[in-house]
Structure formats: C-alpha cells, structure tokens
C-alpha cells in the first residue's frame, strides 16, 4: 500500500511538470466572415401612363438599353384634341369679352371727362351727374379686370391641356435597361389601377445589400472597401464601397442593413444575384486572447484553466473571433492571468500547478 501511494505521488509530479502556462494577452484582431448579400438596381421605376388612352406604339422591349429622355412609347387619346380645342375657344370668348369691357371703359371715361369739363360752368350739370359718371368709370374698370382674369384662367386651362398632351409620350426618366414590358399596342392604359407599361432599371451602378449581425455592427465603416464573389464567376473577386448604413437593427433577424455601391461596368452583375461577401470584422481595443488549445468545451460549459496561487481554477468563457493560433475570449479573466496552454477536463479544479509561465508566441 505504501509503495502504491509513492507511485501515485510520483505520477502526480510528472503530470504537473507537463503543464505549460501562458499569459492572457490583449490586442486588436481583424478577420473576415462570409455574409450573404443581395443585388438591387441602383434606380428602379415602374412606368405608368398619366392620361387614359390606348397604346399606339411600343418602341422598346425587354433588354433594351435606353438613355435619359428617350421616347419609349406613344399613347393616342382623340378626346385630348377636343379638350384643347374647347379650351382654346374659351380663350377667344374671354378675349372678346375683355375687348368689349375695354370699349365700355373708354366710353365711360369719355363721358366722365365731358361732364367734368362741363361742371366748370356753374349750373351746367348737377354734382350728382358727375359722381354717377365717375362710378360708371370705376365699374367699367372692374369689369375689364374681371375679363382679363377670366382670359388668363382660360389660357392656363389651354396650357394644362397641352401639358397633358405631352404625357401621351412615355420617356425614360434616367438611363438604364428595360427589364419588363407588360403592354402591347392597342392596350388601354391610364392612371390609377391600370397596368404597368414598362419597368426601367439602372444596372450600371448596383446596390449590394448586406445584413450585418448585431455582434459585428461595430465593424461597419462608411467608405470601406469590401470584397465579394458571385456564383456566376466564382474565381473572380469583386469589390464594393460601404455607402449607406441603416443605423437600426431588424427586429426579427437582429441584423443591420448596409448598402454597398458597386460599379457594374462590364454588365456581368445583375439585380437578384446573391453574392458571398467577405465582411471585415475588427475586435475592439482590450480584446483578450489565449491559445485555441487553452479553451475546453464540454457539453456543459466552455472554460479555461487558470493558475490560482498554484492551484487549477476553471473559469467559464465565451469564444469570439480567431487570430492564427489564438482565439478571443471573454469572461472573468484579465490580461496577465496565467492559463494552461493545453487544457483538458482531466485537469481537475484544485489540482496543483507547478510550472512557470511561458509567453505566447
């Protein structure tokens, strides 16, 4: 029995001599994680008719490259010409009324001037007649102003009708490509619930939307260059620039939407593609790191074994990003604490630790 006890003590000493301690260190860590993204057109618009009519011509189709201001389709609305003719006729009537009012004003002024001159001779006319003549001039002046306003209103109606006539021509609001054509000549179109005529998208410049997890949101830097790959060209590396940040987390996914600007000069990228984004992750100052072999993971806990006055102490930790042979940890540990470099749950809490620390390489 005594011989067995000696062997046990000797084995324990040998075990203790195999333990290598290393200090917990602090430094910044950078790495990339793969995040899914989605391409959207930089600009996209559904083109509707602003006036009711029938499609006369469709000058483009799906895939057509168009320039800003280019004519895309024409609509015919025969009643539009009738509206313009009616409005023009009202302008003529208003002008005729204005000229008549002007003539009446001149007549009233002439009468007033004649009576005013006659009033210089005592007893020639009564003062009441002169007052009435002046009131007639004022009434005629008011009538002229009213007719002028009526003419101006009629002219505005003509202008509005002619402006509406320009809407019979559908033009491109920006340069891009027609991605959908949904009507053909003869179709009835117009405002409201009527169908979309065309879909125009600007794909020379794309938006790459990435949902960045909450734990990595601090790594978002506006203006940063970010690499990505697309399934269509897996060997090629593309890059985008962080341009817009949502600054709010999605309640369901706990992620923040970030938009990257991507130039699509060769046209190989397209809205709807799902690229794999190499998102950069940077740790905050004061990040604690230990060798990967120092972290023990069991079904119940994840921990490191710290030297506590010569005794082994299990300290629960959470693992973060990696940096070579080191891994980020967080828990009740501090810089300079000495932990077992090659830890396992065979080293029980309270076991004796006798070996000096060695620095992390």
Notes on the protein architecture:
The protein is elongated and about 140 Å long. The strands form four sheets. Strands 2-15-19-18-17-16 form a six-stranded antiparallel β-sheet, with no helix packed on it. A six-stranded antiparallel β-barrel has the order 3-10-13-12-11-14. Strands 7-6-4-9 form a four-stranded antiparallel β-sheet, with no helix packed on it. The protein has three helices and 20 strands. Helices cover 27% and strands 38% of the residues. The chain has helices at residues 2-18, 78-118, 127-166; strands spanning 21-23, 25-26, 30-47, 53-58, 65-66, 71-76, 169-171, 176-181, 188-189, 198-213, 225-230, 233-249, 255-263, 276-282, 288-291, 296-297, 302-308, 311-323, 326-331, 338-340. Strand 17 (302-308) and strand 18 form a beta hairpin.
Question: Layout of helices and strands, plus pairs?
Answer:
Blueprint: H1 2-18, E1 21-23, E2 25-26, E3 30-47, E4 53-58, E5 65-66, E6 71-76, H2 78-118, H3 127-166, E7 169-171, E8 176-181, E9 188-189, E10 198-213, E11 225-230, E12 233-249, E13 255-263, E14 276-282, E15 288-291, E16 296-297, E17 302-308, E18 311-323, E19 326-331, E20 338-340
Antiparallel strand pairs: 1-20, 2-15, 3-10, 3-14, 4-6, 4-9, 5-8, 6-7, 8-10, 10-13, 11-12, 11-14, 12-13, 15-19, 16-17, 17-18, 18-19
- Range of strand content: 35-45%
Strand numbers in spatial order across the main sheet: 2-15-19-18-17-16
Terminal-residue CA separation: 45 Å
CATH class (first level) name of the largest domain:
Mainly Beta
Helix/sheet category: alpha+beta
């Amino acid at each position: 029995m005594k011989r067995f006890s000696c062997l046990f003590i000797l084995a324990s000493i040998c075990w203790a001599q195999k333990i290598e301690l290393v200090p917990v260190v602090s430094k910044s860590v950078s790495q990339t994680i793969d995040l899914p993204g989605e391409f959207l057109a930089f600009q996209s618009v559904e083109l509707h008719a602003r006036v009711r009519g029938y499609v006369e011509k469709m000058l483009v189709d799906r895939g057509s490259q168009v320039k800003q201001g280019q004519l895309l389709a024409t609509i015919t609305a025969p009643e539009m010409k009738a509206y313009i003719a009616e409005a023009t006729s009202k302008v003529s009537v208003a002008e005729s009324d204005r000229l008549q009012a002007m003539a009446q004003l001149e007549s009233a002024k002439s009468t007033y001037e004649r009576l005013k001159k006659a009033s210089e001779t005592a007893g020639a006319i009564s003062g009441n007649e002169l007052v009435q003549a002046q009131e007639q001039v004022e009434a005629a002046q008011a009538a002229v102003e009213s007719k002028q306003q009526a003419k101006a209103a009629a002219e505005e109606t003509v202008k509005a009708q002619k402006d509406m006539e320009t809407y019979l021509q559908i033009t491109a609001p920006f340069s891009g490509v027609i991605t959908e054509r949904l009507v053909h000549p003869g179709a009835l179109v117009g405002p409201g619930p009527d169908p979309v005529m065309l879909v125009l998208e600007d794909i020379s410049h794309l938006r790459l939307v990435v949902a960045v997890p909450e734990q990595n949101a601090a790594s978002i830097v506006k203006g940063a260059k970010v690499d990505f790959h697309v399934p269509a060209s897996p060997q090629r590396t593309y890059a985008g620039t962080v341009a817009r940040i949502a600054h709010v987390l999605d309640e369901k996914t706990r992620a923040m939407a970030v938009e990257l600007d991507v130039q699509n000069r060769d046209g190989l990228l397209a809205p709807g593609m799902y690229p794999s984004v190499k998102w950069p992750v940077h740790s905050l100052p004061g990040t604690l790191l230990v060798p990967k072999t120092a972290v023990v993971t069991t079904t119940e806990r994840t921990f490191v074994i710290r030297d506590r006055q010569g005794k082994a102490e299990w300290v629960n930790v959470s693992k973060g990003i990696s940096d070579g042979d080191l891994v980020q940890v967080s828990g009740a540990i501090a810089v300079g604490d000495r932990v077992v470099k090659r830890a396992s749950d065979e080293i029980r809490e309270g076991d004796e630790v006798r070996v000096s620390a060695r620095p992390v390489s």
